[in-house]
Structures are given as C-alpha cells and as structure tokens.
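USER: Study each token:
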Amino acid sequence: MPAGTATRGDRNVRPGQRNAQSGGGAGNNGGQYGKKSKRRAPLWAKIVTVFGVVMALVGVGGIVTVKYFLGQLTSNIQTTSSVLDSSGGLGNSGAKAGELPKGAMNMLLLGLDTRTGWGEGESRSDTILILHITASHDKAYMISIPRDTVAEIPADESMGVRSQRTKINAAYLFGSQGGRGWQGGAKLATKAVNKLTGIEFDGVMVIDFNGFKGILEAMGGVRLCVDKEMWSSHYLVKNGKVEYAHGADPTSKPRNALVFKKGCREMQPWEALEFSRLRHSDNGDYDRQRHQQQLLRAMAKKASSAGIMGNPTKVSKILAAAGKSLKMDTHGVKVDNFIFGLKGLAAGDLIPIKTNGGTFAGGEGGEGITDDTRRLFEATSADKLPEFLLRHPENVITDGAAAS
C-alpha cells in the first residue's frame, strides 16, 4: 500500500499528502438554491458528475466534434430494456417507449459498493439517488434515499423473488442473484423505489464505485471541503503509511484509524471516494448522502475548468472511463439520442435535496420515511417538485449547510 504522512501526535493523516487506492466519494460546497453560478459546467462534464451519465456533449465544440464525444461515451455503455419495459409498469406511463419525454423526467441512479473479490450477485445498491429533471430540461434535483430505509421489496415471479420488508439496498442484491446480473438487480431495485416513492422513471443507471474511481483518476482528483472530522473504517495509518484495514471492525474506531480533518483541500481520487463512503458521525448515512451530492457538484466544477476543457486528451480519458463504468436502461431510447435530448442541462444546475430533514428517522430496525419526505416524493411524482421546494426551502441543501 502506498505511503502517507501521519499528523504528529495523533497518527492522523491529512488527505492529499499520500497515495493509496480505494473506492467511495466526497463533497464540495453545494450551490445556493435558485442562484446561478459564475461558471457553468459543459454538458459532457455533467455526464461525469451524475455517476458518469445523464447529460450530453454539447458545449464542448471548441475541443472536438460532439459526434465524436458521444460516440466515445456511448460505445462502451452496457444497455438493457428489461428494467423499464412496459410490462413492468416502472417506466413513465406518459412517455412512449423509444421516445424521450417532452416534459419532466425522473432518473434512478444506483451506486454499487463492490469490493475486491466479490462476484456477481454480491453487491448492494448503497447509493440510491433520484434525479428529477424539470420539464424545461435545464435544471436537475438530486434526491438521495437512505440505503438503510426499511421498505417493501416487491415480489417478482419472473425472478422467483418473494415479497419481503427489509432495507431497500438489499433489493439490488436479491434481484442480481441466480445469474440475473445487473439487469435483475436494477429491475428489482427500481420496483422497490417505485413502491416506496410512487415515482415512475424514464431511465435507470448503474455504476459501481470501482468504475467511479476511474473517472476521478482521469480528472486527476478534485478539491473538496470536509465539513466535519470523520474516520474511515477501511484504512489505518501504520508508521506514517496508509494501509487497507483488512478484517477491521467497521463499527468501532481503532486507535490508528485514518481520519479526515475538517477543511478544504485537493484530494486524490481514492481519498475523495473514501470520504463519500464514511458514515461515522451523528447523522450517519445522511452526511454520506450529502457528501456524495457535493462530490458530483465538485466534479462538474473540475470538469468545466480550463485545465480540463483545454485538454482534449483528458476529456477523452474522462469520457472513456465514464462509458466503461455505466450500465443503463433508457426506456427504448437510443443512448446517444437520450443523452443529446438533455442538452438543456448544459446551462442548468444540480440542486441537492434533503430527505428526512437530513437526520435519522428510526423505525423497524433501520431508517423510516418522514411525512415531509413522503410529500416530497409525491410532488416529484406529480412533476411539482420546484413548487413544493418554494414552499419548503428547508429541504434544499445550501452552501452553509454543506460546509457547516
């Protein structure tokens, strides 16, 4: 394992001072709701931000042709039509299969925490994020569902899966077993989220953290702000070096745990990803969700920087890594048409939204869902989320909340 430098006295290592390898992601300050930023990320940059996929390559014309970039991004993406097929009832009932909806859209993004040595059928969707895109296709809201939310996993006779009530991140695991792979996992996870929220989807995307690491490596890391000190259950600091914590207890902080100190700095890809996996704080998974949302915004900022946009080689590497990392169901729409149809997001915003007020809502041995969050889901399903947030601005993560 690569070496690092320990902080004197407490053996903590300041991220950014050493090299190592891992998966997971972190955050930067979020943007103020309704406030336009000075620099807009190009559409290809936002592809990389939302698990590497949702938007297109318009706005990069000064580097290479849009057609070339779209081809590079989509050539390696694995696709299926088995998740949002009409018989499943999961796809947007107002959208015709094979055609991009004219109005608002909802995308389901599933992030897998796949560990080294794990085979197919062993991963859970530890990141579950709904991307609600407004009817004008120029603004997107990020809504994270806590991975430990106790919900009904619907039965699926075609997969031989019985109905049961458990943590929602297990739906992907159950669906992917028996040789059904990511298609089965994505289908059952989508059914579970649909059952919980009532939201129909126009697209589903799956990416694992190992793939996400490749995108960050192609970028060269990102600048992130650690808003509170947190420790890692995956890494230890021994003799000034960062080592993977094989067999460590993930619930008890070891004396020489790797600690992420509060403050802003440039993070290497592995440590940015690790930071987004951390849950050892008073707000647990809610801090983790917020940091993941912040990471997506930080990546958009980095990808739109002059150092990236003016370097065709870097752009090519980022898009190649994104394409290899993605698996998608676009409800019958060709991937390149699907991405190009969202070109309005090039000048849009990614707005992070809280669920459960950003704090633990206990129930049934896991997370519950508050009445306010149920109303948020209902507004999203009815394409009235912006109006709901105007009445309930406390659900929007602002700069101050992100960096507190």
The chain has 13 helices and 16 strands.
